[in-house]
Amino acid sequence: MIVVPYEDPVFEQLNTYYLDISKVLEHFRGSIGSGAVRLRSQESEGVIFFDADDVLNAIFKSHNGEFSGQEAVQEIFNQAQQRNYSLDIYHIDQDNILYWANIFLASPIYKDLSSEFTDLQGLIKKQQEENLTGYILADINQDQALLFFNSGQLIGAAYSWTSDELNRTPQKLDEIHERIHKNGALHHVYQIAPEKHTFVESDEVHPTEETIEADDIYTMFEDLLDKTRSVVTNSRSVKEDFSTLLRKKFLEKANIYPFLDPFAAELEYKDGKIYNYSDVDKSQVVKAVLESIKEIINENNLEKKMNKELEAWRNNYSHYLSDLNIHF
User: Fold this and answer.
1) Crossing angle (nearest 10°) for helices 120-129 and 173-183
2) pLDDT digits (tens, 9 = 90+) for 55-68
3) What is the residue range of 239's domain?
4) Separation of alpha carbons 167 and 181, rounded Å
C-alpha cells in the first residue's frame, strides 16, 4: 500500500505516454517546491517525493517486487517509457514532505501483536504518549489499515478496502475497529528515525554481564520456559495451558514490571520465543521472567516434577548463570 497526501493536487490522471518523467520532475521541483509524483496502473504503482533541492525518496511496487530509493527512481523512469501509467502530481507542504518521504524507511519497533491481547485503541494511546513518528500497520484478514503518527499526533489513516487513499477523518477509525472485532488482526508499529537512548550504567552491575549478549540470555530463558511448559502440559492437576498461566502471571506482575503488561506490548512470549520490543534493560527482563516462572511452579505445586528439568537446564547454562549471579 503506497499512501500519498492528495489534498493539494496540481495535476491528476495525466498519461505517461505523452510525458518525460525526468523533465516533469525537474519542472515541478522548480514550480511547486515540494511534493510527489505518483504513477499507477492495474499491475504496479510508484511515487517519487521531491523538494526544490533534490529527489528525497521513491518507492515502486509491482508483481516483480519492490524497489526504493534511487533504484525505485530508475525503475519508475524505465516503466514510464515502456507502459502507460496514470500520473498524478501533488504539492506537499515543506514542513511535511520529509515525513512522507521517509515513511517507507520506518523500522519496526513492535511486530505481530495479536488483537486478542493488544487492543488497538490502547496501542494508539500508547504511541500518542510516546510521541511516535511513524505508523501502526494492522493486518486484518486479507486487508490492511495504516495509522500515521507525527510526533505522537494521529494525522490520518489509509485502508486497503477504500483504494488506499489517505483519510483525515478520525471517525473512520470505526471501520478498523469493526473489522478487527469481526476478523482479528496483527498489529505492527514502525518508527521513523528513532532517537538514540543513553543508558547510565550502575556500578552494581556484575562486571562480566555485558559480555553476555541479550540473545543468549533470551535463549536460556526460552529453554526454561519450554521445560516449564512441558511439565505443565503433562500435569493432570493443572487445568490451564501454560500460555494462559504465563499471560495471567505477566498481567499480575505488571504493576511491578510494567513491560510485562500484555496490553503494553513491550515483552512477548510467542511460539517459544521471547520478544523484547522495549528499551528495558535485560537485567530487568531476567528478573521479571525468573520471578514469573518461580511463582507458576510454586503455585501449581510443580517443584518435584521440575527438579529433573531444572537440573538439566542449570548444567546447560552454568556459565551464564554464574556470570549473571542467578540462583534458581
Assistant:
1) 130
2) 889 999 988 888 88
3) 209-323
4) 21
Beta strand 9-15 with 65-68 is unpaired
Q: Is residue 98 one of the residues assigned to a domain? A: yes
Determine, yes or no, domain membership for 328: no
- The answer to whether 111 and 134 are in contact (CB under 8 A) is no
Helix (H) or strand (E) holding 57: strand 55-62
Those residues with Cβ within 8 angstroms of residue 300's Cβ, 6 or more apart along the chain or in another chain: 232, 235, 237, 238, 245
Alpha helices (H) along the chain: 21-31, 69-82, 94-102, 120-129, 173-183, 214-234, 242-252, 282-299, 303-316, 318-323
User: Which phi and psi angles does 157 have, rounded to 5°?
Assistant: -145, 160
Instruction: For residue 203, give Cα distances in angstroms to 89, 113, 208.
Output: 58, 36, 12
- Torsion angle of C-alpha atoms 302, 306, 307, 313, degrees rounded to 10: -150
What does the alpha-carbon distance between residue 322 and residue 328 come to, in Å, rounded to a whole number? 11
* Residue 69 sits in the same domain as residue 130: no
pLDDT tens string 198-240: 333 333 333 333 445 667 777 888 888 888 888 888 888 888 8
> Do both 170 and 274 map to the same domain?
no
Angle between helix axes 69-82 and 21-31 (nearest 10 degrees) is 120
The phi and psi torsions of 228 (rounded to 5 degrees) equal: -65, -40
**The pairing of beta strand 35-40 with beta strand 86-91:** antiparallel
